[in-house]
Fold this sequence. Notes:
The protein is of the alpha/beta class. Helices cover 40% and strands 17% of the residues. The site of zinc ion (ZN) has 6 residues, from helix 3.
Amino acid sequence: MKVLGIESSCDETAAAIVNDKKEILGECVLTQLEHKIYGGVVPEIAARSHLEHMDEILEETFKKSGLSPCDIDAVAAASGPGLIGGVVIGVMAAKALALALNKPFIAVNHLEGHALAARLTSDVEYPYLLLLVSGGHCQILIVKGVGNFERLGTTIDDAAGEAFDKVAKMLNLGYPGGPIIEKMAALGDENRFVLPRPLQNSGDCNLSFSGLKTAVRKIIESYSPDNNIEHAILRKKDAADICASFQLAVTESLIHKLQKAIVIFKTKYPHGKDLVVSGGVAANTYLRDRLKFLAETEGLSFSAPPIRFCTDNGVMIAWAGMERALKGLYDDLNFKPRPRWPLDANAPKAAGAGGVKA
Ligand code: KG4
Ligand code: ZN
């Protein structure tokens, strides 16, 4: 079986074809650079760019795979959550192809794409404990199966990736912030600035990053003669130390809550053996290394998608589509894209429900 997956929920226009032997037959990702000058994704610009590039991304994906559209068994698209203007473009492209080819359409939850990506590239078995850390989401979940998630914790304010992006913006380092902060942090002293670890004593698995962001802002302001962040003058070493201290604080906050989540996971699923991290922030090597160590200490196997499949891509959508297709979980062509779509509201549907069947 071969599934085409389309991603357009944020600032990547992407497509991929995977088969049920876990082979990637073709893939193409275009990261929109137009947003850099704004220091964040501008939804209208993103939607226009998806519209402009969707056809060429699809053509390129088919060209790389050596397949023709008729060879595809189902068409999946990230159908939410995300910036709705972009989501609609990917969903419409997928529905049009499904209709023209008389093949099933699959509405993939973008977060399910991130959540299942590690199963394409590693031997990860259900149930597993997942840390999903991206630009828009930060959650700890037990993944029990396709469309079957139990959320143990979530951020009560900013997502981890959003915090990386905002700190990079405060330091005038550019967008997206995560990769730049990681590079700067490697040159810095992570113990120079003492930053808060929010919600450490809350007793649950929830996270918070907005206080951490404010603490970083105060440090930067202290480098300005009038406490105005715009006037701050930092040496490269100061900026690197801030980045390293911030990256340490985010990592330790995540690890602290994961330790709590591991206790719950092991109690509920004594045979569960995998800890997985996914989403854009999972591209951070420092975080990956610390999580690998945590997993080893806790007697779990650690998995993460290869770095290029952590940030948004078509492969993860195609693979989540494949997992759904293998269970006969297809969607109607009247499926409405969902700007908000919590993962744990993603209850499994009856096999074969709805959909245009081949
Ligand atoms: O998963 P993703 O591509 O998009 C969403 O679904 O949100 O994640 C993008 C986020 C951005 O906030 C970006 O700064 C962050 O992932 N990111 C990183 C790294 N690479 C990307 N954060 C920390 N370290 C990285 N190396
Ligand atoms: Zn994403």
